[in-house]
Design goal:
Length: about 625
């Protein structure tokens, strides 16, 4: 990671552009002899030269900052490459000179090393006279196998480092006589990678976390990056400003190295600077074609009627859902800040009214196959640690190398409809994961992989608000089919709000749904009749395809209708169950027992202990 600087210089006006960790390091150079840098140490960093700033490697940023602080030589050690001199090449001095002073045998500014030689060199470095020198120990995490069970060589190295931290003496440097140590800078991924007894309560060592780039850092390097995109040098200032804003917005939570890679990908695939958001999308999901843009306008317009035939009596819900899909396909409604999903919908209402059917219909409309959606039955995630099934087990636990069901599925199919069925049955701890998806559009799996939901349509279904718990603890209906839809809608919304705000204490999750909470109505008698007729026609069509022609007399049909729609409390699913009990099962029994072949007519239906059909040859 400590490689040559990358990026193009870009003039930026303002205050000190150096990262906070650099300013913290320089502030404590007179006070501490050793430093530990942890966190985002493998990323590019902001390097400032007056009012100019650009992205550079961590090594270059350290060498530049230490050189300005009066350090004549900045050396680097890593477990593979050994020792090297970072600053000699730019200063014009002999790169071997500083290494020789430490008793090493260099060639062209490099010298081999090992853990024992590093321990000896630390001693010589700390006690060396002359101009101050800094030694960066990179990949320090890889110097030990286990920080809580050190080998003899590892223990000797860090014991010597601890003793040297206490015995090191600062010397005045420069005309201002500023005190300087021969500093040692450990670069590790995590603070816990090094022995605790080296870091904790060590008054001569300073731990400095290196943060991931925030919006200001991304804004600093974005102008130079967008100018290097195809068409960037000839673009107007307005186009460049919009491209910079788009790059900063779309890369929320990403590293400076990711921004650099986005631009390299854009140059390789000739993505114009005005479409830099497309380069970010390709980098995130790894797919060149945008499946949303490939959806034809006529497909959605023509599909609306077919969806209304499948989801009967819920025209308001179908219209609202289609609006969400149209917004996702066209990009209308403002920029999707960061990685937020293409669309979000919360489908609420009684059982059997078409919530899951609507999600399936939308999947078939968008991607041509209703089974292409990713569905999670949240009743399976009621345990406290069930979130590990979604994102994967953390390091050290069984199943860590497998990954999570949700993160794996979205990584494989980034363009998808993700359905979380019966969300109220999930453990409240899992809702925090949904907050990350809805707000940031990204989840980090147990293995540390970032999975983006920026191309997914997220749908939740729920029965919240349909029932309530009375003062006596008894569960009772909150809404009934006797109430008009406006009242049902208001009471269900109130029940949902109470659940998130008062029961779960998660009002922020409800806030993310906004106005996309879609309440389904009960199956009313007129709608129940439509569903009944459609299902009976489907049964006859299935029989026809199996080689058996079926007709139903008006008398038998009305008797069947009375049985099937007498109770609509279970919605369309209840009608389907009744048709199975009173038509499909007795019809199969009658056909099996009947002698002869050919078309038949159901002339009579009798319901007693069981349903019996009377068949005649048609």
């Amino acid at each position: 990671m400590l490689a040559a600087q990358t990026g193009v210089k870009e003039q930026v006006t303002g205050a000190d552009l150096r990262p906070r960790w650099v300013r913290d390091l320089l502030r404590f150079l007179p006070l501490k002899s050793q430093f530990v840098l942890t966190g985002n140490v493998r990323d590019l960093q902001i390097r400032a030269e007056g009012d100019k700033a650009f992205a550079a490697s961590l090594g270059d940023v350290l060498a530049d900052a230490l050189g300005q602080a009066g350090y004549e030589d900045v050396l680097r050690y890593d477990p593979v490459g050994g020792f090297s001199n970072l600053g000699a090449a730019t200063s014009g001095r002999d790169p071997d000179e500083a290494l020789v002073r430490l008793g090493l045998s260099p060639t062209s500014g490099k010298a081999a090393g090992g853990i024992d030689l590093l321990a000896t060199t630390l001693q010589r470095h700390t006690e060396l006279d002359g101009a101050p020198m800094a030694l960066i120990v990179d990949f320090a995490s890889r110097l030990v196998v286990r920080s809580d069970a050190l080998s003899a060589a590892e223990h000797a190295l860090f014991t010597r480092a601890l003793v040297l931290a206490q015995s090191a003496q600062a010397r005045p440097v420069g005309p201002e006589r500023a005190p300087r140590f021969n500093s040692i800078i450990w670069v590790a991924e995590k603070e816990g990678d090094l022995p605790d007894w080296l870091l904790i309560d060590n008054p001569r060592l300073r731990h400095i976390p290196v943060a991931t780039p925030d919006r200001a850092a991304r804004s600093t390097v974005a102008p130079s990056l967008v100018r290097s995109m195809p068409g960037g040098r000839d673009a107007s200032e307005m186009v460049l400003l919009e491209a910079k804003q788009s790059l900063v917005d779309a890369t929320e939570g990403m590293l400076l190295m990711d921004l650099n890679a986005v631009v390299q990908l854009g140059r390789a695939e000739q993505v114009d600077v005005s479409s830099i958001g497309e380069a970010v999308r390709r980098y995130k999901v790894g797919v060149t074609e945008d499946a949303w843009r490939k959806i034809e306008r006529r497909t959605i317009l023509d599909g609306a009627d077919s969806i209304r035939k499948r989801v009967v009596g819920q025209d308001h819900a179908v219209t609202h859902m289609l609006d969400i899909v149209k917004r996702a396909a066209t990009g209308i409604g403002g920029a999707r800040r960061g990685n937020r999903p293409r669309g979000i919908a919360f489908l609420a209402g009684p059982t059997g009214v078409g919530k899951t059917e609507l999600a399936k219909s939308m999947t078939e409309l968008l991607f041509g196959d209703e089974s292409a959606y990713i569905r999670f039955d949240m009743s399976e995630f009621s345990a406290e640690h069930a979130d590990q099934r979604l994102i994967g087990a953390p390091p050290g636990y069984v199943g860590y190398d497998v990954g999570g069901e949700l993160t794996n599925a979205v990584r494989e199919k980034p363009f998808s409809v993700v359905l979380f069925d019966e969300i109220e049955k999930a453990h409240p701890r899992i809702l925090d994961k949904f907050l990350q998806i809805l707000d940031d559009g990204v989840l980090t799996s147990g293995r540390g992989d970032r999975v983006y939901f920026s191309e997914a349509l997220i749908i939740f279904t729920s029965n919240l608000g349909i029932y309530t718990t009375g003062p006596d603890g008894e569960r009772r209906a909150n809404v009934t089919p006797a109430q008009p839809f406006a009242e049902v809608q208001a009471r269900v919304r109130e029940g949902i709000e109470n659940h998130f705000k008062l029961v779960l204490n998660r009002p922020e999750i409800l806030n993310r749904f906004g106005e996309n909470v879609i309440v389904f109505d009960f199956i009313r008698p007129e709608v129940g009749n439509q569903i009944f007729d459609a299902m009976v026609r489907s049964v006859c069509a299935d029989a026809e395809s199996a080689g058996q022609s079926i007709e139903i007399s008006t008398e038998a049909l009305e008797a069947l209708r009375a049985l099937c729609i007498a109770d609509l409390s279970n919605g369309g699913r209840g009608i389907r169950n009744k048709i199975e009990a009173h038509l499909i099962n007795p019809l199969a029994r009658a056909l099996f027992e009947r002698d002869g072949e050919g078309p038949v007519r159901i002339t009579k239906l009798v319901h007693d202990a069981s349903t019996t059909l009377t068949l005649e040859a048609a």
